[in-house]
Amino acid sequence: MTNPLFYAKILLFGEYGIIEDSQGLTVPYSFYKGTLKFSDLNSDFEKKSNLSLNKYSDYLEKIDLPEDFQLNIDSLKKDISKGLFFDSNIPQGYGVGSSGALVAAIFEKYSVIKRTPESISKEGLKNLKVVFGLLESYFHGKSSGIDPLICYMNLPILIEDRNNVDKVSIPKQEAGKGAIFLIDSGSVGETGPMIQIFFEKLKNEGFRKTLKEEFIRYNNACIDTFLKKEMNPFFKNLKKLSFWAFEHFKPMIPENIWMAWKKGLESNAYYLKLCGSGGGGYILGFSKDYPKAEKMLEGFDKEVIYRF
């Protein structure tokens, strides 16, 4: 049997807000994927990946996982010595879950108790999220476990609050003029420093107030209207969300995106928002008229991820 592929993920809504208990909506993105493989480690990429896996396995040996979620570390270490590496085209620092896919792949292959995503209940998802948080914290210092959970489940996931997640159906794609798309900022974003900026901002009472009273309200309304396919109220809330982020998340928006972000708000041709923690990587775009938005965003690399 060939090893399963683990896809990247895109957090459509909830960046930063989920730290403060907002809702989040995340979808798998099959353009990027990764899988565990064996090789003779002839290339630098394979050698580096194998070495990283070795260091990661040392970390996994030390953490205390719940009884039902034990990993077979001996088997993992044996495989690493035989040339195991993670073959992935998921870009790092782009907000699409590169470490999440790796964690999901390791959990799937080496967990002592085997599961299938279809069989996992809502309560099971909650427990799995906690375990994935422990497994991924090696890469980020602290992890919510959401990224690996999405990569593992390969389904859209609604983050209801800090502790609860559920599987959800997003409206079926249609060949309309509207689109959700990614813009490549052309630079890599580092999650750690961006999160640091956010926590610094949280110390300010005024920022905390507007985050709770405005950002989280617009964010949750976007999720609600998108899932119900109510596109007019969706875009109304999206504009407010995009404007709020432009005002308050300026340090997280790559400088070469500022003018394009502003142009979208002024023309109403499209709206932009952060994809993940920002600082670089991808930016998310939403437009009712993608051909028009595409023209206005000439010069940027874009990828359509959803049509409506």
Please provide a written account of the structure.
The protein has 308 residues and is of the alpha+beta class. The protein folds into 2 domains: 6-167, Ribosomal Protein S5, domain 2, CATH 3.30.230; 179-307, Alpha-Beta Plaits (2-Layer Sandwich), CATH 3.30.70.890. 45% of the residues lie in helices and 19% in strands. The chain is built from 10 helices and 9 strands. It has helices at 44-62, 73-81, 98-110, 122-140, 146-153, 191-202, 205-227, 231-248, 258-267, 290-296, and strands at 6-13, 24-38, 84-88, 157-159, 165-167, 179-184, 271-274, 282-287, 301-307. Strands 1, 2, 3, 4 and 5 form a 5-stranded antiparallel beta sheet that branches. A 4-stranded antiparallel beta sheet has the order 7-8-6-9. Strand 4 and strand 5 (165-167) form a beta hairpin. Helix 3 crosses helix 4 and helix 8 packs antiparallel against helix 9. The chain is globular and about 60 Å long. The mean pLDDT is 92.
Number of helices: 10
CATH architecture of the largest domain: 2-Layer Sandwich
Hey, roughly how much beta strand do the residues contain? 15-25%
- Apparent shape: globular
Overall number of strands: 9
**CATH class label of the largest domain:** Alpha Beta
Helical fraction equals 40-55%
The SSE string, one letter per element, is EEHHEHHHEEEHHHHEEHE
Mean pLDDT: 92
Give keywords.
308 residues, alpha+beta, Ribosomal Protein S5, domain 2, 2 domains, 4-stranded antiparallel β-sheet, 10 helices, globular, transferase, nucleotide-binding, kinase activity, kinase
